[in-house]
Amino acid sequence: MEEAGIEDVENQASRLTELVAELSKVLVGQEAMVSRLLIGLLCRGHVLLEGVPGLAKTLTVRLLAQAVDTGFSRIQFTPDMLPADVIGTQVFNPRDATYSVKKGPIFSNLVLADEINRAPAKVQAALLEAMQERQVSIGDTSYPLEDPFLVLATQNPIEQEGTYPLPEAQLDRFMLKVRVGYPSKEEERRIVERMAGGQAQPEMHAVLGVAEIRTLRTAVERVFIDDKIKHYVVDLVHATRDPEGAGVADLEGMIELGASPRASIYLTLAAKAHAFLQGRSYATPHDVKNVAPDVLRHRLALSYEAEAEGRTPDDVIERILVGVLVP
User: Fold this and answer.
1) What is the pTM of this model?
2) CATH class for the domain made up of 3-215
């Protein structure tokens, strides 16, 4: 990359620092979740946030929508939903004997799909077309969705009553699956002081617009990633399919289904975006390792033996990251 390109990447990255500072007016902690949402925004990748209620998942997405000057809609998923509640429907006009299209909340830039695992299969199928094709079919016509278009979904991993596990095909469409954890004691004290102290919530201001988002995406594409790191990414993904061949023979029989080539694509893009967020114009193996769990954890299906031993996808990914040789 030319020197001018390097300076451009570093200058553009400073705009995201302003965005994070704006979010910090209200948010306390959750830097990792904010980082992953920004990676999704920069890479055109949908993000699934998983965590128990009360961890500011919905609040964070809503604040991000306020800090980015784009359209925003929130869909609360319930078991009795219909596809028309998400994508829209045709409405009959008896006066003219014609049909008109009433577009649903999916027609926006940032779409918060709250408790996405509560929606039945038909709703998930309708959402799948929007996520993958970035278009929606209503009647005989397909309508393109706006750019940027990003689905930011939340789900509760504990509650099972009235939920529908997301099909593997839809999970694979999410670039990242982020585990949202509890705040530290100090962060929780600050949350209590801010939210229960009678203070007025600071006013949020839009920091980025659509044109700037496109410029930042172009800057991320210019982040340099060496061929050795690309080979490292492919080695990690192949290790989920052939553990013995990758030097982690102790995982043989633990993985029922490995990650698809889409994982290699997203892992490369996410590593470049992570480097960009750090203000660097080049990606390193550390960037790959940092984002690998979020890219891979929802793309692995463990065997019965692994589940019987109490293994989780994160355990398997950690073992792969230790066992595969770093360039």
Assistant:
1) 0.88
2) alpha beta
